[in-house]
Design brief:
Distance between the termini of chain A: 89 Å
Number of domains of chain A: 3
Shape of chain A: globular
CATH topology of the largest domain in chain A: Sulfite Reductase Hemoprotein, domain 1
Strand content of chain A: 5-15%
Structural class of chain A: alpha+beta
Helix content of chain A: 25-40%
CATH architecture of chain B: Orthogonal Bundle
Low-confidence stretches of chain B: none
CATH architecture of the largest domain in chain A: 2-Layer Sandwich
Order of helices and strands of chain B: HHHEEH
Order of helices and strands of chain A: HHHEEHEEHEHHEHEEHHEEHEEEHHHH
CATH class of chain B: Mainly Alpha
Largest interface: A-B, 32 and 27 residues
Oligomer: heterodimer
Number of helices of chain B: 4
Chain lengths: 437, 81
C-alpha cells in the first residue's frame, strides 16, 4: 500500500511511453523491501514522499519546492543544488532533498561495474533516484540530505576518481560525443579536448564568478549529435577544409544495390531501389553534386557540410583529411523566451594539443562577458545587445565573409567612429555648399 | 588592494546593504572592490575559503552572502535568527 494516494500521477502511467512515475514507484517499493539490507542514510520512504509532494503540486497547480539553497561541499560553488520543500511536516522524507551533479565520463563511456557502484553509493547515501543524463550531460543524483554531501563527495573523488559537475554561474560540465573513439565521421578527438579543457578550467567549473551559466560542447562532425550548435555558449563542431573523399567504385555499389543506403538504417520497410538522383543529389542543399559519365562529382567550395550525402553513402564518401573544428558562439535553449542558435565565430581551427589557440579565443570571450555581461545574461544575449562586432574586438578576430549573415544590410558594420574622418557628426552647412537640397 | 583591506570593505558594504538584501551577485562584489572580475575572483575565493562569504545557488544562478544572513538560512535551520 502506497504511503500517499496519487491519482493524478497514476494517470501519467496510462500513456504508451515509459513513465517516470512507474520508475519512482518501483524504487519506492524496492526501498520498502530492502532486499540487500542497505543501511539507508536518508529516509527509507523518501521516494514515497517525493511522489506525494509531486501529487500535491499537481493538485495545487504550483510547486512545493523552495528556490535554491546554501548547501555545497567545501570549496565548491557548484555541483550541489539545494532543494528544500515547503511541506516538511507532511513529507519529512523530502524536507531536504538536494540534487548532486556528477561529471559524466568522456563520451559517456563507463563500465557496468562503475555504474553499479555509483548506484550502490546513491542507494546508501541518497534516494536511489537518478537522472541519466541531465541536459548538461551530467549524471544527476536526485535527493539527499545535507550531512550526506561531503560523504558522497569524498567517496566520488577518492574511490571513483570522479568529480562533481558544474551548476550555477559556473562553467558547466563540458560535454562531448564519442568522437574518433568509434565514429569515422569525427574530425577531431572530442574526448581529448573535452578532458583537457575540463582540467584547465577547474576554477571556472567549481567557483562561480560568471554572470550566468556557460557551456562548452564538442561535436566531432557537423551531424552535431551533442546538439552543441543549439545549446552551447561555445560549440566546437568538427569540420574539414579540403575535399570530400569519393570512392567511385563504392558509389557504383550503392547505385547497383550492393550496399544498403544509410548503412542499412531505416530498413524496416521496402523503400524501393536506391535512387542517387532523388535521395542524394536532389537533396543537396547547395546543389553542388552531379553525376558525370557514371561518376559522382562534388563542387566542394559550395559544400556547406550538411553531411547528408556522407550519411547516406558512408562507404563511398568520407570527410576530408585537413581536419579541425568550427567554433560557434552564443547558443542557448531556455524554456521561457525561445531558443537561439550559435553564430559562427571561427570558421576553421586546428584541434591540436595543447589547444593554445582555442584557449586564447575562449579566454578573450570570458574577459569580455565577465566585464560587460549583465547578471543572468548569457553570452548569446550579450552578443545581441552589444553586437557581434564587439565580440570580434574582444577576441581579436578579424571580420570575414563567414561572419556576415546577409550582405549589404549595413555597409558600415566594420567601421568605427574613430576610423571615419570627422566621426559620425558633420557640418550640415558645409555639406549643403556642395549638395543642394 | 591588500586582502585584509578588501575583506573589511566587503563585510562593511554587505552589512550596510543587509536591510534590503542578503544575497549578492559576483558583479556586485567586483564593483565594491573596484576590480576586474578575474582579480576580484581571487579575493572572493579566499573569502569563501575563510567562510567570510558563502555560496548560494538556485541551480542556475549563483550568489554570495554572509553566513547566517537572510531568510533562507533561517528557513534551512542553518542558523536561528
Amino acid at each position: 500500500m502506497a504511503k500517499h494516494a496519487t491519482p493524478l500521477l497514476d494517470q501519467l502511467e496510462s500513456g504508451p511511453w515509459p513513465s517516470f512515475v512507474s520508475d519512482l514507484k518501483q524504487e519506492a517499493a524496492n526501498r520498502a523491501k530492502n532486499p540487500n539490507n542497505v543501511e539507508f542514510q536518508v529516509a527509507q520512504d523518501c521516494v514515497e514522499d517525493l511522489l506525494g509532494i509531486l501529487e500535491l503540486s499537481f493538485k495545487h497547480g504550483m510547486t512545493h519546492w523552495k528556490h535554491g539553497g546554501i548547501v555545497g561541499v567545501f570549496g565548491y560553488g557548484g555541483g550541489v543544488i539545494g532543494r528544500y520543500c515547503d511541506q516538511p511536516e507532511k513529507f519529512p522524507g523530502v524536507a531536504h532533498f538536494h540534487t548532486m551533479r556528477v561529471a559524466q565520463p568522456g563520451g559517456k563511456y563507463y563500465t557496468t561495474e562503475f555504474l553499479k557502484k555509483l548506484c550502490d553509493l546513491w542507494e546508501f547515501r541518497g534516494s536511489g533516484v537518478t537522472n541519466m543524463h541531465g541536459s548538461t550531460g551530467d549524471i544527476i543524483f536526485i535527493g539527499t540530505s545535507t550531512p550526506q554531501l561531503e560523504e558522497i563527495f569524498y567517496e566520488l573523488t577518492h574511490t571513483f576518481n570522479q568529480d562533481l559537475g558544474g551548476s550555477g554561474s559556473n562553467l558547466r560540465t563540458p560535454a562531448d560525443c564519442i568522437g574518433s573513439s568509434r565514429c569515422e565521421y569525427s574530425c577531431y578527438d572530442t574526448q581529448a579536448i573535452c578532458y583537457d579543457l575540463t582540467q584547465e578550467y577547474q576554477d571556472e567549473l567549481h567557483r562561480p564568478a560568471f554572470p550566468y551559466k556557460f557551456k562548452f560542447k564538442f561535436d566531432g562532425c557537423p551531424n552535431c549529435c551533442v546538439a552543441s550548435i543549439a545549446r552551447a555558449d561555445i560549440s566546437f563542431v568538427g569540420n574539414w577544409k579540403d575535399d570530400i573523399k569519393i570512392d567511385q567504385e563504392a558509389v557504383a555499389g550503392y547505385i547497383g544495390g550492393e550496399f544498403p543506403a544509410n548503412a542499412g538504417d531505416h530498413n524496416g520497410r521496402d523503400w524501393g531501389k536506391f535512387d542517387i538522383e532523388k535521395e542524394v543529389i536532389g537533396l543537396c542543399p547547395t546543389q553542388c553534386m552531379w553525376m558525370d559519365s557514371g561518376k559522382l562529382k562534388i563542387d566542394n567550395k559550395e559544400c556547406t557540410r550538411c553531411m547528408h550525402c556522407i550519411n547516406v553513402m558512408p562507404r563511398a564518401l568520407h570527410i576530408g583529411d585537413d581536419r579541425g573544428c568550427s567554433m560557434l558562439v552564443g547558443a542557448k535553449a531556455p524554456i521561457l523566451d525561445g531558443a537561439q542558435m550559435g553564430s559562427l565565430l571561427v570558421p576553421f581551427i586546428k584541434v591540436e594539443e595543447p589547444y593554445d589557440e582555442i584557449k586564447e579565443v575562449i579566454e578573450g570571450i570570458w574577459d569580455w562577458w565577465m566585464e560587460e555581461g549583465k547578471n543572468r545574461e548569457r553570452l548569446g544575449e550579450l552578443i545581441k545587445r552589444q553586437g557581434f562586432q564587439k565580440l570580434l574586438e574582444a577576441t581579436n578576430i578579424k571580420p570575414m565573409a563567414q561572419h556576415v549573415q546577409e550582405p549589404r544590410h549595413n555597409p558600415y558594420i566594420f567601421w568605427k567612429e574613430d576610423e571615419v574622418d570627422g566621426g559620425w557628426d558633420r557640418d550640415i552647412n558645409a555639406f549643403r555648399k556642395d549638395h543642394l537640397r | 588592494m591588500e586582502y585584509e583591506e578588501a575583506k573589511k570593505l566587503i563585510v562593511e558594504q554587505l552589512t550596510k546593504k543587509l536591510k534590503t538584501k542578503s544575497k549578492f551577485y559576483f558583479n556586485d562584489l567586483s564593483k565594491i572592490l573596484e576590480m576586474k572580475p578575474r582579480e576580484a575572483k581571487k579575493i572572493v575565493n579566499k573569502l569563501v575559503e575563510e567562510k567570510v562569504l558563502e555560496y548560494w545557488s538556485s541551480g542556475s544562478t549563483s550568489m554570495y552572502g554572509m553566513p547566517g544572513t537572510g531568510k533562507q538560512a533561517a528557513a534551512e535551520h542553518e542558523e536561528k535568527e
